[in-house]
Specification:
Elements (H helix, E strand, L loop, with lengths): L2 E3 L4 E9 L6 H11 L9 E4 L5 E14 L2 E9 L7 H8 L4 E7 L5 H17 L9 E6 L9 H8 L6 E3 L8 H18 L18 H8 L6
């Protein structure tokens, strides 16, 4: 759950990148780190095995938007994809405000994708959260590889609810920024609906709009091919 610091007028929201092992969660977060302007990011922290697979989590703080009188910061996390780290996944999911599910587009990874998505739904339910009422974006990763399933097949198997989804190639950054923008919009919309974040102030006559899209454009580099 997001936290609010009334003295600092700051709201901190937590977004978790979830998915099976080797689907590209850590690579995605690294590309976000490379994309965000240094003035608007903290240090990325990772705890990984010798094989460079996430053991506990990755963490990246990002300042995203100022809404009303509040500054909004995102805490971006990944979880380990390996099935035997489920206790860690549960721990990292606690207090999440939104999830990006990073699916491996390769045909041979579909069973792992299904298992991980079911695990996400189960772990959220343990926290009293229904996935169909929770900010969620699907990321179809590894679109730059061979033997990948079509987007239509991925949607049919993994996205029957029709939540926003994006084709990505995290290794080169393609689509990562769009995914981040969209989950941020959904999370802030949800926090506003819960009255955690105040609604945006009406624009002054003649003033340029300063919505989320404009704020993200200010804070992010555009390095995607």
């Amino acid at each position: 759950m997001s936290s609010v610091n009334l003295m600092a007028r700051e709201v901190a929201a937590k977004i978790v990148f979830y998915g099976p092992g080797l689907s590209g969660k850590t690579t995605t977060l690294r590309k976000v780190y490379e994309t965000v302007r240094p003035a608007h990011r903290g240090e990325m922290m990772s705890i990984a095995t010798e094989g460079d697979r996430t053991l506990f989590f990755d963490f990246l703080p990002v300042k995203v938007e100022r809404v009303g009188d509040c500054s909004v910061r995102l805490a971006l996390y990944t979880v380990p994809g390996q099935v035997f780290y489920n206790a860690t996944r549960k721990l990292v999911l606690q207090g999440a405000d939104g999830v990006v599910f990073v699916a491996d587009s390769q045909a041979e990874a579909m069973d792992a994708n299904r298992e991980s998505l079911a695990n996400l739904e189960e772990n959220l339910l343990e926290n009293g959260i229904r996935l169909d009422r929770f900010p969620l974006v699907m990321q179809w990763n590894k679109r730059d590889l061979d033997n990948i399933l079509s987007v239509e097949e991925l949607r049919r198997e993994l996205n029957p609810r029709g939540v926003p989804d994006f084709e990505t190639a995290a290794a080169n950054g393609r689509g990562v920024l769009d995914t981040l923008k969209t989950i941020t919009r959904l999370v802030i919309k949800d926090l506003r609906a819960k009255r955690i974040v105040p609604p945006p102030r009406p624009a002054q006559p003649g003033a340029a709009p300063a919505g989320l899209e404009a704020q993200l454009s200010q804070h992010l580099h555009h390095r995607q091919p």
